[in-house]
What does this fold into?
Amino acid sequence: MKAIVLKIGVAILALSALGCGKKQQDAQPTNIVHESTSEPTLAVANITNTVPWRSGEQGVYRVEMSSRLADSSDHLLLDLSVEAHLHVAVQRVQGSRTTLSLALVGPLVRLEGNDPSRTSAQAASLQDELTQPFVGTFHRGAMEEMGFSSGASAFAVGVRRTLLSGLQVPVLSSDAGPIEAREFDANGEVVVRYTKIDEGSWRVEKQSYVRGLYENDGADAMQQGPRPVLKSAKGNLLMADGRLVRAERSDVVHVDIMDAGGMRSHTALSVALDTTAPPPDASLLSLDASAMTVLAADKPWHTPLDIGAMDAARMEGLTFDAVLKALVAKAKDPRRRGLWSKKNDETASEVQAKGATEWTEDWSRYFSALPAFFRQQPQTLKRAEKEIRRGSPATTSLIGGLSSSGIAAAQQLLLKLARDTKLDAALRESALRNVAQCRQPTVETAEALRALYADAFSKRYAVFGTGIISRKLRESGDEAAALAGVNWLLSLLQTESVAAERRDILRGLANAGHPAVLAPMERLLASDVMLDRAGALEALRLVRDPVVDERIAHHLRASVEPEGAVREAAVQAASTRRSADPLRQALIDAAKTDPEKRVRGLAFKLLRQWSAHDPALVPIIASMAEFHEPS
It folds into this structure.
């Protein structure tokens, strides 16, 4: 079967991170179109120290974007281009936060693939969907979230995400040297360097990704979603009188999503102010976004896919026996030894690094087929269980494949392995970790994991995993099931008196990140028990509520919180949040005046990280550097 089903199906998912995709083996060989070597030419203009938007302002930009996606063998999976006029209206500017209403007018979409009838239909559908208006919110010039009509396809979300990434402009001043800012694009959070060329003209270069859009939080290295890697990146920015005139970017990125193999994407974007175009319709300024779906800049967007067709493409030309044999061979491959440490070891030789990369790409080909076999051929679950129980070298991959499959039967098998006291402790722990990290956890899986709390061996995993699964259930829209897990953890907290056990429960609540924990944690912050106060701060770290920033800032003050360990926990909780007052000022004060050196050092380190996205912190950090860094 030709790969066009996969090319379209995977590309839909890939375009929620435009330029990402899954590796497949049946695409026809073709060379990817590499980036142009020509440098954009930009005019000279004045630049002011302000964000490029003013309330009530409207403008029209001419946009051109393209995305070409290929697997590690240069098999082309996707070739998409979009041309249109982008109408922009500034709904409001509040402090450092800006909200834009946007609409693509007259979009022209081209999508190429092996089956012209399918790609033509998909292009027409996308072209129609892109005419719907959308909203983008920016904080300190960086994309923060976007809003769009319910039921949007990942194709359209990916295009809009890429367009918004081109409108990001940090605070720039006319006499500034190179600055670095953290921004978001369709692959994740990335550090971007701006170097002044001339008045109003800046060279824009992405440096490295801080976090990938599909990066996994799992502790098991085999469950990690590899971070996107920049192969090349260039761009230019032109400003005039504080207004964005032109932005051009071209990136080549190596990326992988959902453990499906190495992909190479080339995305190019040009956004240019068109002063000759008719102004936007006045209704754009008053666009009602209250009914729109809101998506944070660091969150992926999934829409239903034809899983059967995708799985068939993954499995084509393979059998479960062949996949198992290959994974056993990969496990025995000497290049695997120390693989994960070598990737992070600066002293690793070029040969070692190349070997690690080759091993990973080859392993990914077979590992990505495992979930497909588990979904489409349920009898392979028994084969997997047999191999795991006999200690197959492919055990780690098999357990990871069960977790990635997103089916109830695989989750029940992992739970069965976790409960089996005859199995090796390390294997049971791996099964427990993978239950917690499983894709699309079911309510039954959540309940079964909670039941394992009665087993001393599984107790901590039940607590930590319940928090993670509750967060995933909430993200999937099952608020009732998510709240059931959170309430269970809160009930444990009420009855548990051992301080160390209470701390574990609080860490489970931290994994959940549910707003329902705010009120009970506020009460716990008044506790006389130091571990309770520290745990309460940790439990609030992922809760998206401005009140949380106030509570963390409050407990950063030595005059309020006498225990250094609690103030340290406050810094750690702040590390998952954005730079904004009162948290920002509290960290500055802690870095300067906290009585404990460790707290001062942690606060200073976090401020340095924030400075990449908050240039105003740079001179403050410089004034403190001599007190925190060795001479």
